[in-house]
Write a structure and sequence with these properties.
Layout lengths: L22 H19 L4 H35 L1
Helix pairs in contact: 1-2
Length: 81
Amino acid sequence: MSESGTSDADRRVTHDEAPPAPSSAWVPGAGLLFIGLWMVTDGGPLLLGWAFFALGLSLLIIGATACGVAWGMDLHSRSQR
């Protein structure tokens, strides 16, 4: 029991909802990457353009990795059936 009078089991978080789709990372990532490259090549604010580029590229990589993991887990679950 903690000091507040609730046990650790009462504070445990349940995950009843499905995780967000991988496209929730790579779609904004692709947009930010495009906008960042546009700013850099079109004479826009360079610092902001490179920041958008870096953020967009990282989101794009995270989203692509999440898509690959979801695809692999789906293949694994199908082979278990």
